[in-house]
Amino acid sequence: MALVPCQVLRVAILLSYCSILCNYKAIEMPSHQTYGGSWKFLTFIDLFVVAVFWIIYAYDREMIYPKLLDNFIPGWLNHGMHTTVLPFILIEMRTSHHAYPSRSSGLAAICTFSVGYILWVCWVHHVTGMWVYPFLEHIGPGARIVFFGSTTILMNFLYLLGEVLNSYIWDTQRSMEEEKEKPKLE
């Protein structure tokens, strides 16, 4: 039995990853009529992941993605998790209209998600003695609180940015379609 070439395996993994991200269903696609589908809050939170990961990586790689991980997670998979997300965010923003909930509900959901994730990160440290993200080990408790607060504020900002961009893109498109439908008076 011949081994599957590495490139074919990489493409298969990437396509599997993309299909999970897109929540693709072959028969029905009702997510376009809902509040943005299963991933409605993740669009610009994903942008947060891309930005924060690469900023910390550029500052000091060992703080976020130690070279030791290269032995277990190949570079292409790292890019699959932290880089290729960006084009899909932009494509989704252009191709899928998101009907956002009320601003207070959306921001409450983002804050709840953020606090829940922060608590999970702290719980893992409490149980194992290791931080999920190595850079948290290098900063003091006060700096961690500032970091966690700043990330929550940044996530709220990105949520609002997504809401504004979605409104701009889709309201502009809707107005252009209405202009085409208007009868011309001569």
UniProtKB/TrEMBL annotation:
<comment type="similarity">
    <text>Belongs to the AIG1 family.</text>
</comment>
<dbReference type="GO" id="GO:0016020">
    <property type="term" value="C:membrane"/>
</dbReference>
<keyword id="KW-0812">Transmembrane</keyword>
<keyword id="KW-1133">Transmembrane helix</keyword>
<feature type="transmembrane region" description="Helical">
    <location>
        <begin position="145"/>
        <end position="170"/>
    </location>
</feature>
<dbReference type="GO" id="GO:0012505">
    <property type="term" value="C:endomembrane system"/>
</dbReference>
<dbReference type="InterPro" id="IPR006838">
    <property type="entry name" value="ADTRP_AIG1"/>
</dbReference>
<keyword id="KW-0472">Membrane</keyword>
<feature type="transmembrane region" description="Helical">
    <location>
        <begin position="42"/>
        <end position="59"/>
    </location>
</feature>
<feature type="transmembrane region" description="Helical">
    <location>
        <begin position="107"/>
        <end position="133"/>
    </location>
</feature>
<dbReference type="Pfam" id="PF04750">
    <property type="entry name" value="Far-17a_AIG1"/>
</dbReference>
<protein>
    <submittedName>
        <fullName>Androgen-induced gene 1 protein isoform X7</fullName>
    </submittedName>
</protein>
